[in-house]
Write a structure and sequence with these properties.
Oligomer: single chain
Number of helices: 0
Distance between the termini: 55 Å
Largest sheet: 3 strands, antiparallel
Strand content: over 45%
Strand order of the largest sheet: 1-2-3
Radius of gyration: 22 Å
Number of strands: 3
Shape: rod-shaped
Protein backbone atom coordinates (compact mmCIF):
# COMPACT_ATOMS: atom_id res chain seq x y z
CA UNK A 1 0.00 0.00 0.00
CA UNK A 2 2.92 2.38 0.76
CA UNK A 3 6.13 2.99 -1.18
CA UNK A 4 9.49 2.28 0.44
CA UNK A 5 10.53 5.88 -0.16
CA UNK A 6 9.31 9.10 -1.76
CA UNK A 7 11.12 12.03 -3.31
CA UNK A 8 11.50 15.52 -1.90
CA UNK A 9 13.35 18.36 -3.57
CA UNK A 10 14.06 21.91 -2.34
CA UNK A 11 15.74 24.60 -4.41
CA UNK A 12 16.58 28.20 -3.43
CA UNK A 13 18.12 31.13 -5.32
CA UNK A 14 19.18 34.25 -3.38
CA UNK A 15 20.48 37.48 -4.90
CA UNK A 16 21.71 40.39 -2.81
CA UNK A 17 23.78 43.50 -3.29
CA UNK A 18 23.76 47.27 -3.26
CA UNK A 19 25.82 50.11 -1.91
CA UNK A 20 26.25 51.86 1.45
CA UNK A 21 22.96 53.76 1.01
CA UNK A 22 20.73 51.20 -0.78
CA UNK A 23 20.71 47.42 -0.32
CA UNK A 24 18.51 44.80 -2.01
CA UNK A 25 17.69 41.14 -1.45
CA UNK A 26 15.63 38.85 -3.72
CA UNK A 27 14.88 35.20 -2.98
CA UNK A 28 13.13 32.52 -5.06
CA UNK A 29 12.29 29.05 -3.75
CA UNK A 30 10.70 25.81 -4.95
CA UNK A 31 9.65 22.76 -2.92
CA UNK A 32 8.42 19.43 -4.35
CA UNK A 33 7.18 16.49 -2.31
CA UNK A 34 5.99 13.25 -3.89
CA UNK A 35 3.31 11.14 -2.22
CA UNK A 36 4.01 7.88 -0.42
CA UNK A 37 1.03 5.83 -1.67
CA UNK A 38 1.51 3.24 -4.43
CA UNK A 39 -0.58 3.47 -7.60
CA UNK A 40 -2.76 0.47 -8.44
CA UNK A 41 -4.30 -0.29 -11.85
CA UNK A 42 -7.70 -1.11 -10.31
CA UNK A 43 -8.15 2.47 -9.04
CA UNK A 44 -9.43 4.75 -11.86
CA UNK A 45 -7.91 7.94 -10.41
CA UNK A 46 -4.56 9.23 -9.16
CA UNK A 47 -4.39 8.49 -5.42
CA UNK A 48 -0.82 9.67 -4.90
CA UNK A 49 -0.88 13.27 -3.69
CA UNK A 50 1.99 15.59 -4.59
CA UNK A 51 2.89 18.98 -3.17
CA UNK A 52 4.46 21.90 -5.06
CA UNK A 53 5.28 25.22 -3.38
CA UNK A 54 6.80 28.38 -4.84
CA UNK A 55 8.22 31.23 -2.74
CA UNK A 56 9.23 34.77 -3.65
CA UNK A 57 10.63 37.49 -1.38
CA UNK A 58 12.09 40.93 -2.11
CA UNK A 59 13.56 43.52 0.28
CA UNK A 60 14.95 47.00 -0.31
CA UNK A 61 16.72 48.89 2.48
CA UNK A 62 17.39 52.61 2.02
CA UNK A 63 19.53 54.71 4.33
CA UNK A 64 17.80 58.11 4.40
CA UNK A 65 20.15 59.82 6.87
CA UNK A 66 22.92 58.71 9.25
CA UNK A 67 20.31 57.85 11.90
CA UNK A 68 17.27 56.90 9.76
CA UNK A 69 16.78 53.94 7.46
CA UNK A 70 13.68 52.65 5.68
Amino acid sequence: MFRDMSLQSKTNLNISGGSDNIKYFVSFGYLYQNGILKNFDIIPYENNYQYNRYNYRANIDVKLTNTTSM
